[in-house]
Amino acid sequence: MLSIGLCGMNVAAHAVKCMYAVATWPGLCHALCTCIWVEVQSSKKKVPDNMLARTFKKFIQKAEDRSCGRRGFLARKIKSIFQHMYEIIRGVPIFGSDYGTVLRQLIAVSEYRLRMPKRIYGELLHLYTEKVLEMVHTKSTRTEEGFRNALTMFTLLQNPPGDFPDSLRDETVDMFCQIFERLRDEGRIAEKLVAALNAFLLNQGLNLGDGVASIHASFRDFMVRAWLTTHDRKLKEGLVLYGRLQARLRGVVLLKDEGAIEELLDLVEKELDLSGASALGGSSYRSEDGELGTASKRRKKESLFLRMKEKLLAGKGPW
Known about the structure:
The protein is mostly helical. The chain has a domain at 216-319. It has helices spanning 4-13, 25-42, 51-63, 78-91, 96-107, 110-113, 118-138, 144-158, 166-182, 188-204, 211-229, 233-249, 258-272, 304-314. It starts with a helix and ends in a 5-residue tail after the last helix.
């Protein structure tokens, strides 16, 4: 059996060659991907053996095992690996769990992510947002598959390979609007979807224009309902971070509905001013009255934008 150390040494030895030597990680990966693709193509009339997907996952994990030395052995092959994963995830749903795990692992590595073709990234993001939207439509938000799809969507948005094309940015805004208009879950899937939205706002918020306000118009009802009903601490942390991001982006001031702005400010103020804790600091999320909007009755005559500006400029707490 070919040793792990020998694979690593052979990668370095063949680094200047164009073809993949079999006794290297890229060479073995090329052979394995080809084998899986041929098997899938020959099994169109029957379900492919899931052992193929498990083998692929174990191979990638072994190739990226830090205990075996430096990472990055797959760099020369990574574009083809991402292409292979997209084709398999799209065409063989039964492989989705194992291939999704590999995708989350590889895209988190900057050396690999930056080599990912933007077209493939866009196709994968579209594929997973469609999976999440279908889950929301069918109200199947309690399944493990649903959680894994939300997790992969979050990982993709957290690790873009570069700037978003305008078309992909607009499509993602629209998908988030559809998702939160229909989402009725306040558990771990909702927490992961809020995290995905926050990752999108962090990476692309300054380029969204009116899209920031459009997102909040769709997110608002979910935000209020989840805040009042959930016991998930991470979800509440995500909602507070969302409020901070919206306040900093100031897209919410584009809304003509004063009540929506008041609710957003109350959401953040209630947790940050009364408890004196940040969304990332691990506060105990309890409010005095458990409702949004109470504080607004005492501040109707106060300029909403001025309050936001004062908070941001003063840098009060985690604002």
